[in-house]
Fold this protein.
Amino acid sequence: MFSLKNLLISLVVFLVIFFGKQIFQPKKSTRSEFKNLNPSIKYVGDEECAACHDDIYNSFIKTGMGRSFYPSESAEVIENYDNNNPVYDSKNNYYYLSSIVNDKIVQTEYRLNKSGTKIHERSKVVDYIIGSGNHNRTYLTMQNGFITELPLTWYSDKKKWDLSPGYHSNNMRFSRPIVEECMHCHNSFTDYEPLTPNKYNAPLPSGIGCERCHGPGQLHVKSRIDNVNNQKGEIDFTIVNPTHLPFQEQLDVCQQCHLQGEISVFKQGKQSNDFRPGMLLSHVKSIFMDLSPDSNEFRIASHAERLAKSACFKESTTLTCITCHNPHVPVKDYRRQSFNKRCISCHELKMMSLKNGSANHRPAADCVRCHMPQGNTADIPHVNFTDHKIQIIKSSLSKKTGKNGSYKKPIELTNYFRETGGYADVQKGIAYIRFYESRHEHKNYLELAVALLENNLINSEQYISGWYHLGRAYHLLGDLEKAESAYQQTIKLDSAHVLANAQLGILNLESEKLEQADYYFSRSINHNSDIPVVWNNFGQSLMLSDSIASALTAYDRAIKLNPDYATAYNNKGEILLYKQNEIEKAKVNFLSCLKIDPDNVYALHNMSNISIVEGEWKNAMQYAKRALDIDTNFVPSYGTLSTVYQRFGKIDQARDVLLKILDIEPNNADAIKILETISD
């Protein structure tokens, strides 16, 4: 039998290995005793920590967390840029290539025609890298403080380039925003501009820092400067040491980033940086899971939820992440046997062998290989990752990548923290709407959300985010009257609610109530002038009300904030062409739009119109056909083709095109009139 003496010896060895010379284990403290939970205590940065803890710091910066975010120029080259074949996105007909140009990493997108001639090319310089490179690296670019993800990722396990995670199903090209929650889990504390949603003020820190797990260090540093030292064995309450936290709070330090779920919803008035180690994560956000039988998959950041499904976890009151992991030490520096020792410190080998004589339950056996196998993650391709569900494997893990963001049928979201009551149901309603908008556009989620929010906002009237999302649900369902009512309730509670004001502007723009639209767009901009889409929509409203100079100013502002805003270039070009007859200036804007988005059918149509004005009839036909290759029901381009065919005397072909318009729009008056004319 495994004696109590042996068990105590193994625990002492564990403490020595993972916590250095500190063999004494103080009693767990309550979170309220840690003084740096006070919101007034400030973060000081890693340099202050390194001044006294240089050995720990120098070890930590070599971990995956310590190397999770950094400027591209400081990155060690681990990628292969030689014999670099382009990655082809067959769904969207784009090629991608990563290369080094003038000592800068550059990602290039291009398209070829049927003869192999390059007809589109666009490049972006990499400014930042996200990911340690242990498994993969993804690349970011920054313009005017707005950070977006680039299309290619380097997958270290397979030593290959491929589309970035999620891009196989939804290629956002150069425009996928790095939102606050994403930045939070890959970096230290940043100066984020709320509601933008991806604007950050420089300088940006490099990698997850000490205070992400220990809380703000101002008070701790001051106590050391003042020579305030604790007696040996006493807890230092000026800084959080997670080993001294109660069980759930200790878990939550890791779960702030390693509990992925399907969707997270922040509590009223909270955001990522409001969580401090020592707090309960559930006080800051709700996390929702898919608990359906076919959701048994693991993802790149699902360590906590997978561990929670383990019998070892369920039957223990002490098993947390740091039972097996010292976060200050790179995983690659561990010997596998150090993990296996943790298993056999709790499991008696002799008893396990009696239960299963065919298994290899010897002291030198590899517990992790058998009970925590590696396999492909469901959300990140080409990554071989350890599943943290400790289990008895009856069959090998599937090599499929799971649904990878694709959902064939609606799923039920379940609150991971088992929160109940009105506020919890409001959070769940918000979760369904955000899940609809970001993951799976199925009407069922909106209907579930409306039921939850209508039933619970009555008793939670001050829940501003709940009212805003109820408005979004109604808006997406097409019930504009109820949407407006919910948005109005939102700004009644918070007159400076940027998004609700912007949505009211859109509602009034759709209803051609231009004066009211201008009013709400102006209110939104007055409270946050850094959101390009609001400026663009404001420009649309001003243009329709013939405030041409103001509309141009609005579009220029949208473009200045986001120089890659294709739609704003097209909208500006339409004013210049149709309102001011500035053909050359209009052409510059349409071509700028098409350089960014070669599939913009409106810009293609506008270029075909310019070609007609300039007498370039063949160009007009080519632009129209390009638009129809993208959208076979795009009526304006059929109208252009009809005009070109008539110009060349091809009346039968013109007639066929007009009949196609009437198939799409049976009451199209222009098509009916022209058809009657050419048929006489």
In short: Confidence is low (pLDDT under 50) at residues 1-26, 396-403.
